[in-house]
């Protein structure tokens, strides 16, 4: 596919003409899991580590009560900070999955070769997270929550819907920044234009991923309700499932990008 050069994205829109089904994406991604687990995990594991370290530092630095965090911290500042610190690792995991979808050889070092794009990737993640969380943050502000009273739940639902659709239309932004050298804003616009004809399929893919996570946590939840030892067993099962599930989720995004962009 011919792709517009950076700076021309506002004048010309990519015209994707690929046909695919949801099952195509899911099946192709699953077929790529073997041979991808360690290369993806080698970079993806630092997403959780970086996020945890960032939260610990922010909580201690600003003396935030983790049991009762403020609305500003919980719904605005922490998501933004978190998006910045995980950005290079997230981009590395996604690009490793894309390379695998393209049939290229990948290794545990694959995800680290994209660190040169750290700054634009951080800005891209920050922009996506801001758009996804701003409505949810506003509806949770005490004056707003108090004013709407019992209707606050509907505003919460609205905030969640906005966040989901932001993620649907920006799902290709980060790899476009890394792979096509777009600026964060151009990557955002390009992602919107590429996803637009297939937005419902992408929405369903994200929904399916969410369901996968819910199902994966069932052993952990059930174990916690039965016995402390059962909780340990449930945690072990959850981690075992995650060994396959996390690479699979990145591969779904990688296959989607390969079909819409390459």
Structural notes for this entry:
The chain is mostly helical. The protein has one domain. The protein has 10 helices and no strands. It has helices spanning 22-31, 37-61, 71-101, 118-140, 142-148, 152-169, 173-179, 184-195, 199-226, 228-261. Helix 2 packs antiparallel against helix 3 and helix 3 packs across helix 10. The chain is globular, with a radius of gyration of 19 Å. The N and C termini lie close together (6 Å).
Outline:
The chain crosses the membrane at residues 40-62, 74-98, 118-139, 151-178, 198-222, 229-252. The protein is built from ten helices and no strands.
Which keywords apply here?
transmembrane helix, disordered N terminus, mainly alpha, membrane, 262 residues, single chain
Would you list the SSEs in sequence order as H and E?
HHHHHHHHHH
Morphology? globular
Specify the number of helices: 10
Radius of gyration from the alpha-carbon trace, in angstroms: 19 Å
Mean pLDDT: 89
Q: What amount of the residues lies in strands?
A: under 5%
What's the SSE blueprint?
Layout: H1 22-31, H2 37-61, H3 71-101, H4 118-140, H5 142-148, H6 152-169, H7 173-179, H8 184-195, H9 199-226, H10 228-261
């Amino acid at each position: 596919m011919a792709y517009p050069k950076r700076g021309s994205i506002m004048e010309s829109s990519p015209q994707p003409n690929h046909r695919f089904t949801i099952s195509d994406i899911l099946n192709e991604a699953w077929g790529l899991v073997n041979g991808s687990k360690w290369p993806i995990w080698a970079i993806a594991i630092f997403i959780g580590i970086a996020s945890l370290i960032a939260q610990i530092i922010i909580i201690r630095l600003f003396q935030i009560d983790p049991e009762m965090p403020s609305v500003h911290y919980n719904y605005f500042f922490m998501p933004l900070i978190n998006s910045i610190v995980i950005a290079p690792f997230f981009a590395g995991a996604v690009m490793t999955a894309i390379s695998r979808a393209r049939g290229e050889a990948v290794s545990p070092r694959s995800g680290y070769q994209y660190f040169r794009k750290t700054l634009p990737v951080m800005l891209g993640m920050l922009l996506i997270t801001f758009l996804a969380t701003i409505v949810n943050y506003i509806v949770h502000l005490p004056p707003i929550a108090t004013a709407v009273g019992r209707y606050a739940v509907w505003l919460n639902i609205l905030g969640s819907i906005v966040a989901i659709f932001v993620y649907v239309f920006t799902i290709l932004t980060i790899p476009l920044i890394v792979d096509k050298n777009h600026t964060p804003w151009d990557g955002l616009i390009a992602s919107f234009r590429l996803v637009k004809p297939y937005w419902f399929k992408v929405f369903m893919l994200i929904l399916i991923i969410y369901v996968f996570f819910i199902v994966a946590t069932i052993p952990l939840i059930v174990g916690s309700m039965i016995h402390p030892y059962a909780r340990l067993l449930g945690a072990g099962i959850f981690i075992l499932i995650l060994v396959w599930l996390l690479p699979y989720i990145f591969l779904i995004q990688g296959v989607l990008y390969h079909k819409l962009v390459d």
